[in-house]
Protein backbone atom coordinates (compact mmCIF):
# COMPACT_ATOMS: atom_id res chain seq x y z
CA UNK A 1 0.00 0.00 0.00
CA UNK A 2 1.56 3.28 -1.07
CA UNK A 3 1.12 6.34 1.09
CA UNK A 4 0.59 9.39 -1.04
CA UNK A 5 0.71 11.94 1.77
CA UNK A 6 3.18 14.74 1.32
CA UNK A 7 5.85 15.84 3.78
CA UNK A 8 4.27 18.58 5.86
CA UNK A 9 6.22 21.46 4.27
CA UNK A 10 5.38 20.31 0.76
CA UNK A 11 1.73 19.91 1.62
CA UNK A 12 1.67 23.41 3.03
CA UNK A 13 3.05 24.75 -0.21
CA UNK A 14 0.44 22.77 -2.14
CA UNK A 15 -2.51 24.14 -0.18
CA UNK A 16 -1.52 27.51 1.24
CA UNK A 17 -2.12 30.72 -0.66
CA UNK A 18 -0.59 33.05 1.89
CA UNK A 19 -2.58 35.10 4.37
CA UNK A 20 -6.16 33.94 4.09
CA UNK A 21 -9.10 36.19 4.94
CA UNK A 22 -11.52 34.93 7.55
CA UNK A 23 -14.26 32.75 6.13
CA UNK A 24 -17.86 33.69 6.75
CA UNK A 25 -20.82 31.45 7.42
CA UNK A 26 -24.28 31.94 5.95
CA UNK A 27 -25.09 34.00 9.05
CA UNK A 28 -22.19 36.33 8.40
CA UNK A 29 -20.06 35.04 11.27
CA UNK A 30 -16.35 34.52 10.76
CA UNK A 31 -15.28 30.87 10.68
CA UNK A 32 -14.48 29.52 13.12
CA UNK A 33 -16.47 31.53 15.66
CA UNK A 34 -16.86 28.81 18.31
CA UNK A 35 -15.02 25.70 19.57
CA UNK A 36 -14.54 22.79 17.17
CA UNK A 37 -14.48 19.09 18.00
CA UNK A 38 -12.68 16.03 16.76
CA UNK A 39 -14.79 12.89 16.99
CA UNK A 40 -12.88 9.72 17.86
CA UNK A 41 -14.90 6.56 17.29
CA UNK A 42 -13.02 4.51 19.89
CA UNK A 43 -12.61 4.69 23.69
CA UNK A 44 -10.29 7.12 25.43
CA UNK A 45 -6.77 5.80 25.91
CA UNK A 46 -6.54 4.02 22.57
CA UNK A 47 -3.96 4.90 19.89
CA UNK A 48 -6.19 7.13 17.77
CA UNK A 49 -7.38 8.92 20.92
CA UNK A 50 -3.74 9.50 21.90
CA UNK A 51 -3.02 11.10 18.52
CA UNK A 52 -6.22 13.19 18.66
CA UNK A 53 -5.26 14.60 22.06
CA UNK A 54 -1.78 15.43 20.79
CA UNK A 55 -2.98 17.35 17.75
CA UNK A 56 -6.10 19.05 19.18
CA UNK A 57 -4.29 21.80 21.15
CA UNK A 58 -2.03 22.74 18.24
CA UNK A 59 -4.94 22.67 15.78
CA UNK A 60 -6.90 24.90 18.14
CA UNK A 61 -3.99 27.31 18.33
CA UNK A 62 -3.79 27.52 14.54
CA UNK A 63 -7.58 27.86 14.11
CA UNK A 64 -7.95 30.39 16.92
CA UNK A 65 -10.60 28.32 18.69
CA UNK A 66 -10.53 25.49 21.20
CA UNK A 67 -10.61 22.00 19.67
CA UNK A 68 -12.22 19.35 21.85
CA UNK A 69 -11.92 15.55 21.55
CA UNK A 70 -15.28 13.78 21.56
CA UNK A 71 -15.13 9.99 22.09
CA UNK A 72 -18.09 8.14 20.60
CA UNK A 73 -17.11 4.49 20.77
CA UNK A 74 -18.94 1.34 19.73
CA UNK A 75 -19.40 -1.20 16.93
CA UNK A 76 -15.75 -0.98 15.86
CA UNK A 77 -16.07 2.69 14.97
CA UNK A 78 -19.41 2.55 13.18
CA UNK A 79 -21.30 4.48 15.87
CA UNK A 80 -18.88 7.39 15.84
CA UNK A 81 -18.71 7.43 12.05
CA UNK A 82 -22.48 7.47 11.72
CA UNK A 83 -22.63 10.33 14.21
CA UNK A 84 -20.24 12.40 12.10
CA UNK A 85 -22.11 11.61 8.88
CA UNK A 86 -25.32 12.93 10.47
CA UNK A 87 -23.68 16.03 11.98
CA UNK A 88 -24.04 19.51 10.54
CA UNK A 89 -21.70 20.10 7.60
CA UNK A 90 -20.49 23.42 8.98
CA UNK A 91 -16.82 22.73 9.68
CA UNK A 92 -17.22 22.39 13.43
CA UNK A 93 -17.36 18.59 13.52
CA UNK A 94 -14.22 16.80 12.38
CA UNK A 95 -13.56 13.07 12.41
CA UNK A 96 -10.17 11.50 13.08
CA UNK A 97 -10.68 8.14 11.41
CA UNK A 98 -8.73 4.97 10.86
CA UNK A 99 -9.36 2.41 8.10
CA UNK A 100 -11.20 0.03 10.45
CA UNK A 101 -14.54 1.84 10.24
CA UNK A 102 -14.40 3.61 6.89
CA UNK A 103 -12.24 1.38 4.66
CA UNK A 104 -12.53 -2.14 6.08
CA UNK A 105 -16.04 -2.33 7.56
CA UNK A 106 -17.74 -1.77 4.17
CA UNK A 107 -15.84 -4.84 2.88
CA UNK A 108 -16.45 -7.23 5.77
CA UNK A 109 -19.76 -6.20 7.32
CA UNK A 110 -23.15 -7.00 5.84
CA UNK A 111 -24.71 -3.77 7.13
CA UNK A 112 -22.93 -0.42 7.33
CA UNK A 113 -25.08 2.70 8.00
CA UNK A 114 -23.12 5.00 5.67
CA UNK A 115 -21.30 5.17 2.36
CA UNK A 116 -17.72 6.28 3.03
CA UNK A 117 -16.97 8.10 -0.21
CA UNK A 118 -20.46 9.57 -0.52
CA UNK A 119 -21.02 10.70 3.07
CA UNK A 120 -17.57 11.91 4.13
CA UNK A 121 -15.15 14.49 2.71
CA UNK A 122 -11.41 14.05 3.17
CA UNK A 123 -9.38 16.85 4.75
CA UNK A 124 -5.90 15.39 5.22
CA UNK A 125 -4.00 12.32 6.23
CA UNK A 126 -2.50 12.87 9.69
CA UNK A 127 -0.30 9.95 10.74
CA UNK A 128 0.55 6.36 9.92
CA UNK A 129 1.70 3.64 12.28
CA UNK A 130 2.48 -0.06 11.87
CA UNK A 131 0.63 -2.88 13.53
CA UNK A 132 2.74 -4.58 16.17
CA UNK A 133 2.33 -8.23 17.19
CA UNK A 134 2.87 -8.67 20.92
CA UNK A 135 2.32 -11.42 23.48
CA UNK A 136 2.11 -11.54 27.25
CA UNK A 137 5.47 -12.46 28.83
CA UNK A 138 3.93 -15.71 30.12
CA UNK A 139 3.66 -17.00 26.54
CA UNK A 140 6.73 -19.20 25.90
CA UNK A 141 7.57 -17.67 22.54
CA UNK A 142 10.51 -15.33 22.01
CA UNK A 143 10.00 -15.00 18.25
CA UNK A 144 7.31 -15.20 15.59
CA UNK A 145 8.66 -18.60 14.53
CA UNK A 146 8.27 -19.94 18.07
CA UNK A 147 4.73 -18.55 18.35
CA UNK A 148 3.73 -20.22 15.09
CA UNK A 149 5.23 -23.51 16.28
CA UNK A 150 3.27 -23.28 19.54
CA UNK A 151 0.05 -22.48 17.68
CA UNK A 152 0.54 -25.49 15.39
CA UNK A 153 1.23 -27.76 18.33
CA UNK A 154 -1.80 -26.48 20.25
CA UNK A 155 -4.38 -25.41 17.62
CA UNK A 156 -7.15 -23.18 18.90
CA UNK A 157 -5.61 -22.83 22.37
CA UNK A 158 -3.96 -19.43 21.89
CA UNK A 159 -6.20 -16.36 21.84
CA UNK A 160 -5.38 -12.99 20.33
CA UNK A 161 -7.32 -9.86 21.18
CA UNK A 162 -8.33 -7.16 18.73
CA UNK A 163 -9.90 -3.72 18.85
CA UNK A 164 -13.12 -5.16 17.39
CA UNK A 165 -14.43 -7.55 14.78
CA UNK A 166 -13.65 -6.36 11.28
CA UNK A 167 -11.02 -3.83 12.31
CA UNK A 168 -7.49 -3.60 10.96
CA UNK A 169 -5.95 -5.54 13.90
CA UNK A 170 -8.50 -8.30 13.28
CA UNK A 171 -7.62 -8.40 9.58
CA UNK A 172 -3.91 -8.54 10.52
CA UNK A 173 -4.65 -11.61 12.64
CA UNK A 174 -6.55 -13.22 9.77
CA UNK A 175 -3.61 -12.54 7.45
CA UNK A 176 -1.24 -14.16 9.96
CA UNK A 177 -3.48 -17.21 10.40
CA UNK A 178 -3.72 -17.69 6.66
CA UNK A 179 -0.05 -17.12 5.87
CA UNK A 180 1.24 -19.31 8.71
CA UNK A 181 -1.58 -21.86 8.42
CA UNK A 182 -2.38 -21.74 12.13
CA UNK A 183 -5.55 -21.71 14.21
CA UNK A 184 -5.85 -18.98 16.84
CA UNK A 185 -8.93 -17.76 18.68
CA UNK A 186 -9.96 -14.18 17.96
CA UNK A 187 -11.20 -12.21 20.99
CA UNK A 188 -12.75 -8.86 19.96
CA UNK A 189 -12.86 -5.91 22.36
CA UNK A 190 -14.54 -2.50 22.18
CA UNK A 191 -11.33 -0.68 21.37
CA UNK A 192 -7.59 -0.90 21.98
CA UNK A 193 -7.53 0.43 25.54
CA UNK A 194 -9.63 -2.36 27.14
CA UNK A 195 -7.91 -5.01 24.99
CA UNK A 196 -4.43 -3.88 26.02
CA UNK A 197 -5.52 -3.68 29.67
CA UNK A 198 -6.64 -7.33 29.60
CA UNK A 199 -3.50 -8.38 27.72
CA UNK A 200 -1.18 -6.73 30.26
CA UNK A 201 -3.17 -8.49 32.99
CA UNK A 202 -2.63 -11.83 31.25
CA UNK A 203 -6.29 -12.52 30.41
CA UNK A 204 -5.43 -13.00 26.72
CA UNK A 205 -2.23 -14.26 25.12
CA UNK A 206 -1.45 -11.56 22.57
CA UNK A 207 -2.73 -9.10 19.99
CA UNK A 208 -2.03 -6.94 16.98
CA UNK A 209 -2.44 -3.23 17.66
CA UNK A 210 -1.10 0.18 16.68
CA UNK A 211 2.39 0.98 17.93
CA UNK A 212 1.41 4.09 20.01
CA UNK A 213 -0.76 2.14 22.45
CA UNK A 214 1.64 -0.83 22.81
CA UNK A 215 5.05 0.85 22.85
CA UNK A 216 5.06 1.95 26.54
CA UNK A 217 4.17 -1.58 27.68
CA UNK A 218 6.84 -3.14 25.46
CA UNK A 219 9.44 -0.69 26.74
CA UNK A 220 8.39 -1.46 30.34
CA UNK A 221 8.71 -5.21 29.77
CA UNK A 222 5.01 -5.84 30.36
CA UNK A 223 4.55 -7.13 26.80
CA UNK A 224 6.91 -8.92 24.41
CA UNK A 225 7.03 -7.69 20.82
CA UNK A 226 7.48 -10.37 18.14
CA UNK A 227 7.16 -8.51 14.83
CA UNK A 228 6.05 -5.37 13.06
CA UNK A 229 3.66 -5.75 10.14
CA UNK A 230 5.36 -3.24 7.87
CA UNK A 231 7.97 -3.46 5.09
CA UNK A 232 10.77 -1.93 7.19
CA UNK A 233 11.70 -1.94 10.85
CA UNK A 234 10.49 0.71 13.28
CA UNK A 235 13.06 3.25 14.38
CA UNK A 236 11.67 2.95 17.91
CA UNK A 237 12.23 -0.82 17.94
CA UNK A 238 15.22 -1.20 15.61
CA UNK A 239 16.08 -4.72 16.80
CA UNK A 240 12.59 -6.07 16.14
CA UNK A 241 12.32 -7.87 12.78
CA UNK A 242 9.40 -7.38 10.43
CA UNK A 243 6.91 -10.03 9.36
CA UNK A 244 8.61 -10.10 5.98
CA UNK A 245 12.03 -10.70 7.51
CA UNK A 246 10.53 -13.64 9.38
CA UNK A 247 9.14 -15.26 6.26
CA UNK A 248 5.62 -13.79 6.06
CA UNK A 249 5.75 -10.88 3.58
CA UNK A 250 2.00 -11.06 2.92
CA UNK A 251 1.24 -10.07 6.53
CA UNK A 252 1.43 -6.31 6.02
CA UNK A 253 -0.81 -4.04 8.07
CA UNK A 254 0.00 -0.36 8.46
CA UNK A 255 -2.64 1.77 10.09
CA UNK A 256 -3.28 5.39 9.19
CA UNK A 257 -5.32 8.18 10.72
CA UNK A 258 -6.94 10.88 8.65
CA UNK A 259 -9.19 13.86 9.26
CA UNK A 260 -12.58 13.97 7.53
CA UNK A 261 -15.78 16.02 7.75
CA UNK A 262 -19.41 15.50 6.62
CA UNK A 263 -19.54 15.41 2.83
CA UNK A 264 -21.54 18.60 2.31
CA UNK A 265 -19.02 20.74 4.18
CA UNK A 266 -18.14 23.70 1.89
CA UNK A 267 -14.89 23.21 0.00
CA UNK A 268 -13.46 26.49 1.27
CA UNK A 269 -13.94 25.20 4.84
CA UNK A 270 -12.30 21.89 3.92
CA UNK A 271 -9.34 23.80 2.49
CA UNK A 272 -9.10 25.99 5.59
CA UNK A 273 -9.04 22.90 7.81
CA UNK A 274 -6.46 21.27 5.55
CA UNK A 275 -4.17 24.26 5.86
CA UNK A 276 -4.57 24.20 9.64
CA UNK A 277 -3.76 20.47 9.83
CA UNK A 278 -0.69 20.86 7.61
CA UNK A 279 0.56 23.80 9.64
CA UNK A 280 -0.05 21.94 12.91
CA UNK A 281 1.83 18.86 11.72
CA UNK A 282 4.71 21.08 10.69
CA UNK A 283 5.24 22.08 14.33
CA UNK A 284 8.47 20.48 15.57
CA UNK A 285 7.25 19.85 19.14
CA UNK A 286 4.08 18.12 17.94
CA UNK A 287 6.00 16.04 15.42
CA UNK A 288 8.46 14.93 18.10
CA UNK A 289 5.62 13.91 20.42
CA UNK A 290 3.93 11.88 17.71
CA UNK A 291 7.12 10.20 16.53
CA UNK A 292 8.10 9.32 20.11
CA UNK A 293 4.88 7.33 20.41
CA UNK A 294 5.28 5.58 17.06
CA UNK A 295 2.95 7.75 14.97
CA UNK A 296 4.63 9.17 11.84
CA UNK A 297 3.17 12.56 10.82
CA UNK A 298 2.06 12.60 7.18
CA UNK A 299 0.02 15.31 5.51
CA UNK A 300 -1.81 15.40 2.19
CA UNK A 301 -4.15 17.51 0.13
CA UNK A 302 -7.86 16.63 0.31
CA UNK A 303 -7.78 15.17 -3.20
CA UNK A 304 -4.75 13.02 -2.44
CA UNK A 305 -6.40 11.66 0.68
CA UNK A 306 -9.57 10.87 -1.29
CA UNK A 307 -7.59 8.92 -3.90
CA UNK A 308 -5.66 7.11 -1.19
CA UNK A 309 -8.83 6.20 0.69
CA UNK A 310 -10.44 4.79 -2.46
CA UNK A 311 -7.32 2.68 -3.11
CA UNK A 312 -7.22 1.46 0.50
CA UNK A 313 -10.88 0.41 0.38
CA UNK A 314 -10.17 -1.63 -2.73
CA UNK A 315 -7.16 -3.29 -1.08
CA UNK A 316 -9.07 -4.35 2.02
CA UNK A 317 -12.02 -5.56 -0.06
CA UNK A 318 -9.61 -7.84 -1.90
CA UNK A 319 -8.17 -9.13 1.39
CA UNK A 320 -11.66 -9.68 2.81
CA UNK A 321 -12.59 -11.77 -0.22
CA UNK A 322 -9.37 -13.77 0.05
CA UNK A 323 -9.88 -14.53 3.75
CA UNK A 324 -13.61 -15.13 3.37
CA UNK A 325 -14.25 -12.87 6.37
CA UNK A 326 -17.86 -11.68 6.69
CA UNK A 327 -19.43 -10.20 9.82
CA UNK A 328 -23.18 -9.99 10.39
Looking at this protein, list some descriptive labels:
single chain; 328 residues; alpha/beta; D-Maltodextrin-Binding Protein, domain 2; 10-stranded mixed beta sheet; two-stranded antiparallel ribbon; 41% helix; globular
Brief account:
With 328 residues, the protein is of the alpha/beta class. It is built from twelve helices and twelve strands.
Write a structural description.
Helix content is 41%, strand content 20%. The chain has 328 residues and is an alpha/beta fold. It folds into two domains: 190 residues, D-Maltodextrin-Binding Protein, domain 2, CATH 3.40.190.150; 99 residues, Periplasmic binding protein-like II (D-Maltodextrin-Binding Protein, domain 2), CATH 3.40.190.10. Strands 3, 4, 5, 6, 7, 8, 9, 10, 11 and 12 form a ten-stranded mixed sheet that branches. Strands 1-2 form a two-stranded antiparallel sheet. Strand 3, helix 2 and strand 4 form a beta-alpha-beta unit. Helix 4 crosses helix 12. The protein is globular. About 4% of the residues have low confidence.
Amino acid sequence: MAFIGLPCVAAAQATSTGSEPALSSSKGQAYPSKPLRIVVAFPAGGPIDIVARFIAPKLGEVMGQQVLVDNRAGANGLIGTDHVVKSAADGYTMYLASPSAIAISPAVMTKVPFDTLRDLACVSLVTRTPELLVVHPSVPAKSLKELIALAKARPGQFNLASTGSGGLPHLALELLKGAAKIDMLHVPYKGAAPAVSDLVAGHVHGMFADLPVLLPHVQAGKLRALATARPRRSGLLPDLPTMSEQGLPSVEAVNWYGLLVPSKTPREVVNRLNEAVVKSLGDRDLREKLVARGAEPIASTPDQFTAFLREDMQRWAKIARATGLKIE
